[in-house]
Amino acid sequence: MTYLANGGSRPHAIWTMDGSPGWGYDANGNVTTDGQRTWTWNYDNTPSSINGPGSANESYGYDADGERVTVTSGSNPTTVFLGGLWVEVVGSSQRGLFLFNGQLMVSGSAGLGLTYYHSDHLGSIVTAGSGTSVGTQDYTPWGEERNAGGMPQTAFNYTGQRKDTTGLLDYHARQYDPALARFTSADSIVPGAASASGGGAATLGGGSTTPLTVDFHEPGFANQLNQHNAATGSMGFWFQLSSEEQQKAESPMGPANPQALNRYSYVLNNPLRYTDPTGHFIWWAVGAIIGGVGALGYYLYTHWGHVNFWEAVVYTAGGAAAGAGLTWLVEGGIAVLSGLLGEAVDQAVERLPVPDIPASVSTVAEFGSKVMQWGTGSDVARARMATLSSEELESNGVTLDMAKAWRDFYLNEIVRNPSNPSAPGRAELMQRAVELLSNQQ
User: Fold this and answer.
1) How high is the pLDDT of residue 202?
2) Residue 311 has pLDDT above 80, yes or no
3) 179 or 233: whose pLDDT is higher?
4) Collapsing DSSP states into helix, strand and coil, what is residue 83?
5) CA 284 – CA 270 distance, rounded (Å)
């Protein structure tokens, strides 16, 4: 596997494999050929069709949100998907899917009955059973099947994503090649921007010239990118700067995690801990999924044996709309609940005890709002660094040990809960407090 020389365009794009050329890309960084397959891409940077390897030949249809809804494989009938809740091969079988927290739990059809599935900690389907075990599937860390064909009951595969006849896994926004541990198109969102996408807040650039979303159709993007490159070129990447230089620079200037620079890599090259479910997560989707699943489940329960596809569509769409609307009203509560359920929390990292607060305040919330004034998110906390003084800290009863404890608490929180938007700024603010109070010793 070889890449272009340093300084070339698309430095992380593969150009030859095993010494044989044959890789090609379009202007947006999408693979057009890899020596085994050829791609045709649409305006939304999702594949319209893929030919290969061998006789594999698939074409795809999408809804208005870019979510795949149909797959036609060669001369076989078209498969229709309904929001991850229903699968129908046109003119043939219908199969309802029951998911919990995004993971396949049960599938059922009038002819085949119910099949139950079990997943590992990453959501990869590993066993299927219907009273007794009827299939098992093992994977390498990057998602290749160790025992190919061990799970014929479902196309759900590594991390719960669908595997196509092309050998690629459909990750909704992009397709993933488990044999190469790479995506077939460049990430359009900086890794870590979406909840639970892996990498955490330190992956993101938070400065005014840091482009988080790549939009090739927007002229303003090129100007923004040029500003960002000029700032980075003059000082270097954030992770290359000293502590003193970081305080003077845009904060942070580009990704703080160098793994995020490779826009084709999978979950920052850490597949044993992270997954990349969609890259386009939004909170009201939780309500839509819950509402849709509930409505479809009710329909299947009350109409089992005489299921009508379009009636199921109406039930599911109505439930999804109701769930989305309700979630929109209580979005904050759903977000908190999702955090409590551990969507983006690394359970391998233990949460540190909440540090002590000064006697001048009675609650942590009062400490944050009145003493530290760190606000929500990271921007307010970073702006507060310019006005913070040792005299103010001491007058409010903040000690050096207390400042160190709060700094360590939020540094740990960055690792434990990567989706916490406030932790990075508060960690920097408390580090500034440590420096100010240390100078008074």
Assistant:
1) 42
2) no
3) 179
4) coil
5) 28
DSSP for 387-415, please give it: T--HHHHHHTT--HHHHHHHHHHHHHHHH
Is residue 344 a contact partner of residue 418, using CB atoms and an 8 Å limit? Answer: yes
Pairwise CA distance, residues 120 & 55, whole Å: 32
Give the ranges where 236-308 is alpha helix by DSSP (H). Answer: 243-248, 284-303
Nearest to 431 by CA among 399, 374, 385, 364: 385
Taken in order of first residue, the domains within the chain and their CATH numbers are 205-254 (no CATH), 364-438 (4.10.640.20)
Q: Can you say whether the dihedral through the CA atoms of 338, 341, 346, 349 is positive or negative?
A: positive
pLDDT of residue 250: 53
Residues 364 and 357: their CA atoms lie apart, in Å, by 7
**Lowest mean per-residue pLDDT among 247-256, 286-295, 314-323:** 247-256
One-letter amino acid at 346 equals: D
Cα distance between residue 48 and residue 41, in whole Å: 5
- Which range, 51-65, 264-278, 338-352, has the best average confidence (pLDDT)? 51-65
The sign of the dihedral angle between the CA atoms of 322, 97, 156, 137 is positive
Whole-number percent of the chain with pLDDT over 90: 20
Distance CA 422, CA 57 (A): 47
- Tell me the CA distances in angstroms from 78 to 56, 63, 138, 433, one per residue in order: 14, 15, 28, 62
What order of strands is seen across the sheet that includes strand 169-170? 162-163, 169-170, 175-177, 182-183
Distances (CA, A) of 55 to 37, 58, 125, 293, 345: 10, 10, 26, 36, 42
Structure tokens at 358: 């000064």
The reported pLDDT for the residue numbered 312 is 66
pLDDT at 207 over 80: no
**Rounded to whole angstroms, how far apart are CA atoms 331 and 343?**
15
